[in-house]
Amino acid sequence: MKHYLLGKKRLNRLVPVAAVMALSAGGPAQVHAASCNALLQSHINWLETTPSGYSRDLGLVMVSNEAGVFNLTKFPQATYLAASLGVSSYLGVLTGKGNALFNDRRWGPDPDCGPARDLCLKQDIYPFDPEQGEKWTVMLNHGNSMMILTRGGKTYQVPIDCDGNLMVGTYTTYGQYGSYKFPFKTTKYVLSLYRNEVALPK
Description:
Order of helices and strands: EHHEEEEEEEE
Shape: globular
Strand content: over 45%
Strand order of the largest sheet: 2-3-4-5-6-7-8-9
Helix content: 10-25%
Largest sheet: 8 strands, antiparallel, barrel
Distance between the termini: 18 Å
CATH topology of the domain at 61-196: Lipocalin
CATH architecture of the domain at 61-196: Beta Barrel
Structural class: mainly beta
């Protein structure tokens, strides 16, 4: 969706830090389970009633944290995604793409490390490497409160719950040993949406 840098204003913006705080505070345990139908439908209605002379889109900020049984020797993988969503003319749901950044794909090396440059990373200063991002596709289905997330060449269906304007989803991957099925890793997603309205040039 094309935007113009004229008369830009943001409505009901949710600060990304709030999503990060909710994630670190415990995610779904802090959210009252409720359907996201009303929230997502209100955003769809807002996009579909764009007044003449304006352009609208929906901004998405999503953070995630992954915990698994085999990553005890390293920090859990965390991601940050910013995307722009619109309404799919075919499916009638919110959808869009963005670039995901990873805490285990970090910026470096530090030029002050001398001969050991390749072993010395500025991890504390640059937690994400923008050149090692990954394109993700997000679809938010208001009908069944489901996020369809395509990342790393795979597609996941993640149920989401809402508490006000905050959305939280949890996806668990299972492994199997013989007839025993066990949780392999769990990824928790926290999402916030904000509205963008741009005045078109006259």
